[in-house]
Amino acid sequence: MPAESILVAAGFLVRYGALSIWPLIPVAVIAATLGNYGAYGLGSRFGHLVPLRWGRWIGITASRLEKTGRFFKQHGPVAVMLGRFLVPLRQLQGEPPRILRRLLFPREWSHDPPVSG
């Protein structure tokens, strides 16, 4: 479930006194951190299988993967940073760069830092 949905619901509960904000803050920080580590782990370990196996069903081709890889090589940090502010992209923004890095640099993928974009 997206974190925005949970935090909005928790915000309503805080507003109407059904929940205290002080336990909510550390729980939200820990949940976000664990979620980012989990998404990173799944993307770096299994993410390359998705475009290789099922990509053709959604229009992913080798040439598109190559083009996307070039884009992330050139603009990756900025694209990931901006993706944090666009809600539809925020849900997926950390996985494509990791997947592409593993595809483009299979010997170096294990050196990715364990943080989300």
Strand and helix map with partners:
Blueprint: H1 3-15, H2 21-46, H3 49-54, H4 62-83, H5 87-90, H6 95-104
What would you say this structure looks like, in words?
By secondary structure, the chain is mainly alpha-helical. It contains six helices and no strands. Helix 1 packs antiparallel against helix 2, helix 2 packs parallel to helix 6 and helix 4 packs across helix 6. The longest helix has 26 residues.
- Strand proportion: under 5%
Helix content: 55-70%
Number of β-strand runs: 0
- The number of distinct helices, counting runs of at least 4 residues, comes to 6
Order of helices and strands: HHHHHH
- State Rg: 17 Å
Largest sheet: none
Averaged pLDDT, please? 76
Low-confidence stretches: none
Overall, the morphology is elongated
Cα(first) to Cα(last) distance is 19 Å
Helix and strand composition category: mainly alpha
What would the keywords be for this entry?
single chain, elongated, mainly alpha, 117 residues, 69% helix
Summarize the structure.
With 117 residues, the chain is mainly α. The chain has six helices and no strands.
